[in-house]
């Protein structure tokens, strides 16, 4: 599992990588800022920003179903990963743990993103099995990711990482600690 020491050691490269992805940082800020100002089920500009940021490459029918769920859940103050994964599965027939987590992390920016890069950097293996088995495994993995990231944020040296991010990207100081950590981990490949 990735540590604060490793993140600090590799922070120059991670920050340089993020500088190359400035457009993605702006897209993220836009998706969070605009979430409660628009109907995400209907706003194609919002959907394009989210799709571009997170690499949503599904057909129009899938995207329509996803954004209906997103709109329904965007004001849910107790949004649950397992519930969102199940809703997407029931609507689309696909277990979409990564997109479920990205929906949740947009609604609540203190929540983790579950994707292949984060999973790899945290030493979690790819899961296989039936839809319901994949959902149960994804819930377990998501809880492990969230717990590990929360522990890293509480680490004594995390403020050094946060300070470096804020100095490099002062226009994004509003990003939560968890989002900053997620972005730095995402750059370590």
Helix/strand order, N-terminal first: HHHHHHHHHHH
Biggest β-sheet description: none
Q: What's the overall geometry? A: globular
Helical percentage: 55-70%
Strand content: under 5%
* Alpha carbon gap, first and last residue: 13 Å
Number of strands: 0
Number of helices: 11
Backbone structural class: mainly alpha
Low-confidence stretches: none
Rg calculated over all Cα atoms: 16 Å
Average of per-residue pLDDT values: 95
What does this structure look like?
The radius of gyration is 16 Å and the shape is globular. By secondary structure, the chain is mainly α. It is 68% helix and 0% strand. It starts with a helix and ends with a helix.
Task: Summarize this structure briefly.
The protein is an all-alpha fold and 189 residues long. It is built from 11 helices and no strands.
Task: Please specify the SSE layout and strand pairing.
Elements: H1 4-9, H2 11-20, H3 22-34, H4 44-54, H5 60-73, H6 81-92, H7 97-107, H8 116-121, H9 131-154, H10 158-168, H11 177-186
Helix pairs in contact: 2-11, 3-4, 5-6, 6-7, 6-9, 9-11
Features of the shown structure:
189 residues, mainly alpha
């Amino acid at each position: 599992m990735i540590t604060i020491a490793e993140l600090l050691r590799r922070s120059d490269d991670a920050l340089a990588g993020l500088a190359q992805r400035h457009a993605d940082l702006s897209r993220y800020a836009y998706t969070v800022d605009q979430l409660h100002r628009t109907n995400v089920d209907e706003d194609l500009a919002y959907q394009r920003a989210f799709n571009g940021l997170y690499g949503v490459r599904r057909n129009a029918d899938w995207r329509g179903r996803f954004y209906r769920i997103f709109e329904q859940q965007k004001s849910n103050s107790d949004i649950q990963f397992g519930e969102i994964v199940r809703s997407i599965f029931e609507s689309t027939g696909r277990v979409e743990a990564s997109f479920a987590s990205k929906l949740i992390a947009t609604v609540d920016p203190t929540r983790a993103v579950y994707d292949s890069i984060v999973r790899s950097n945290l030493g979690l293996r790819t899961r296989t099995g039936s839809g319901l088995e994949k959902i149960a495994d994804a819930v377990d993995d998501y809880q492990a990711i969230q717990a590990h990231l929360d522990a890293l944020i509480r680490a004594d040296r995390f403020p050094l990482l946060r300070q470096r991010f804020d100095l490099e990207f002062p226009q994004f100081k509003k990003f939560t600690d968890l989002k900053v950590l997620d972005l730095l981990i995402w750059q370590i490949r």
